[in-house]
Amino acid sequence: MGGARSQVNKPHKTRFASKASRHVHRTSSLSAKGKIGKSEGGHRAAVKGARAARIQKSKSIRDQKRAALLKEKRSSVSAPRVVVLFGLSSYANVNSVKKDLLQLLSGDDRQPTSNTIASSAYRLRTTVLEAPYGDLVACMEMAKVADLMAFVVSANSLYDNHSDGLIDPTGAQCLSILRAIGLSSTCVLIRDLPQDLKSKSEAKKVSISSLSSEMPEDCKYYAADTKEELHKFMWLFKEQHLTCPHWRNQRPYIISNEVCFEPDSGISGTCTLVLSGYLRAHNLSPNQLVQVTGAGDFQLSKVDILKDPFPLNERRGHNLMESEEHMNQICQTLTPDPSAQEPLLVENTPDPLAGEQTWPTEAEMEEADASNKERKVKKRKLPRGTSDYQAAWIVDGTDSEEGDSDIESEEGNGMVLDEELENNNDPEKDEDTISHFTEKFNEEETCADTEMEDDEVMTREQIEAEIKKIKDTNAEDEEFPDEVDTPLDVPAKKRFAKYRGLKSFRTSPWDPKESLPLEYARIFAFDNFSRTQKHVLKTMHELDEGSTRTCAIVGSFVRIHVKNVPIDVASRVCHASKAIPVVASGLLQHESKMSVLHFSVKKNDLYEDPIKSKEAFIFNVGFRQFMARPLFSSDNINSDKHKLERFLHPGRFSVASVYAPICFPALPLVVLKKRDNEMPAVAATGSLKSVDPDRIILKRIILTGYPQRVSKLKATVKYMFHNPDDVRWFKPVDVWTKHGRHGRIKEPVGTHGHMKCVFNSGIQQHDTVCMSLYKRVFPRWPERLYDTAL
């Protein structure tokens, strides 16, 4: 039975194996045969060593996290955990859940007077807050400080035919905002479940299946009707490792328990704002600047470290009077060091004489006088025998020739391409060309600003007409982006004097320091922003390792005194603290100074109105809140120049550039639009991209013309210009067509602005000839940085 009919096994399909497995198989087979070399053995040992190093590194990271978690649990100075209850529909009764949780934590049937409770039964300190349903701004501010986001839903909405389900449109919009700023640990509390066990289980399964697509993967779901179910939730919450957004752990912050203000005796119109609460995330130095959300940046006069009003070892006879005594008992007072305190520097003071030339020296003045005398003594060629009287009537031919040549050169030179500026770099000529039209353009911009600021005086019909005009402009910008018409009554070289042509948008040079506006003298810039950010964060970590004599320790109960706060701002903050807690966050170094910030933004799907560049919006960046007028642009990865976008179009990301206080990324962004007699609407969301005043944003305009006669590669184009002088002026700029042809202007034809063009390929009669012109644009400086009406 042997021989040729012996069994032949199928060979291994090595083409499906990985390189590593084939290498291991090869080395093992060679070592078995005794043919392995030193190089293979050394490589194998190196692979084993690298793998062991990775295992050891991951083990050390895991041990560090475990040690930090144990330290947090065992520490008695950690701040209370903040639980924020969000209602996802009008059916959810969030107030009853809050009362049940506070009664469960206190262990008494009486309603607690404070939102913070130290539970001896759970060995846990918890702050329970209720987010007002429908108030998106308040929900956003409370979500920024939440350690656990507890979403409350009602099972009754599953059986009501008139309901929108467990999540109504308001709840869906609230969820979208919370995702934009970053979700902390989340859970869902399901109320109003049936009493029957089978029906209760089925209703809970239906609720979980309908909510799972909207919630994170690690979200927990709890029934929350009875005291036993809430007890189970609290035990699991106590052992749960909570996560929070990364940006929140970069700065120290305080959630206010009490807010008041004390008038200053020295300066009229200002006061000292006093906030008390637990210090979180990092240590706080009295030399730091603090930012009160919606109010601004300020310095500290002192920091009082108070005795903890909610200790875990609280005895049963502890009453409210003793709690107030605890809150007012000062353990330590920290005052700022004048030599080390961070200055409250917002804007740079511009020097109007910084760009002026120095006074000429005596030698330069003598040289100029000598040259003027030489001009006066210049000899003229006259016929022999001509008298002085006759010479006065003779016109100098050289002067007339020079004048004619000047006119011809002015007509012939025209617009210079950006690549030709290196050879023909004459700033005086550029200034002469543009100086005639600067005053006119300033008047046009001033009129536009006045029209935007006079919206309050306009009637209802005028406002509706303005909104219709903006919507029409938005639709036209989507259909015909950047196309403009050449005016008939103004020469194109005057109307577009600030624009220039580029040979290549990607590779042509553009100096970022050229022709900067006056606002750039008021801002700050970094030589190396990434290095500065690393240094600032390193300083913050060094502060955490500092002694208790120089800074307040994280987890301690402090009272900060914020000085030089306007009285109207302080009263507004005190009034807002009755509804939601006020947050005061410590600023990193340089974060009070103004610069140019760039955000990656996307229009909110539920916001229907068009969003125009340089329109006023409210920017919420981390804990900060300020007014800004963004300038939208595209984000070109392979170029240092970016094209302006007149509108923020839906469905895609753009870059919003604003003048604002410096912030270190990464930080979330929520853009709000203020509306009359209504809550602010969420217009866009995004994140902080960079801080760079040298980012070049170019506004592009496209002049269009139409072929009149076509002959192979040549064409006569009309309606792009209306006089031959404009054709000569723009002759150096290349033209292109919408069907992909590229060419140049050859010469003007006639007196009505027609021109001959030559293209690289045959052109069709129905094609459109275009010319691209560019100028650099900058954001608009905000009239006020903080909105006093919020």
Automatic annotation (TrEMBL):
> Which stretch is the leader sequence?
none
Its annotated compartments are: Nucleus, Nucleolus
Q: Which GO terms describe its biological process?
A: endonucleolytic cleavage of tricistronic rRNA transcript (SSU-rRNA, 5.8S rRNA, LSU-rRNA); maturation of SSU-rRNA from tricistronic rRNA transcript (SSU-rRNA, 5.8S rRNA, LSU-rRNA)
Q: What is its main location?
A: nucleus
Q: Keywords of this protein's UniProt record, alphabetized?
A: Nucleus, Ribosome biogenesis
One Gene Ontology molecular-function label = GTP binding
Q: Residue spans with biased composition (Basic residues)?
A: 10-26
Gene Ontology CC annotation, any one: nucleolus
**Domain Bms1-type G: residue ranges:** 79-243
Quick one: where's region Disordered?
1-60, 334-383
Q: Which InterPro entries match?
A: AARP2CN, Bms1/Tsr1, BMS1_TSR1_C, G_Bms1/Tsr1_dom
What family is this protein classified in? Belongs to the TRAFAC class translation factor GTPase superfamily. Bms1-like GTPase family. TSR1 subfamily.
What name is this protein filed under? Bms1-type G domain-containing protein
Taxonomic classification: Eukaryota, Viridiplantae, Streptophyta, Embryophyta, Tracheophyta
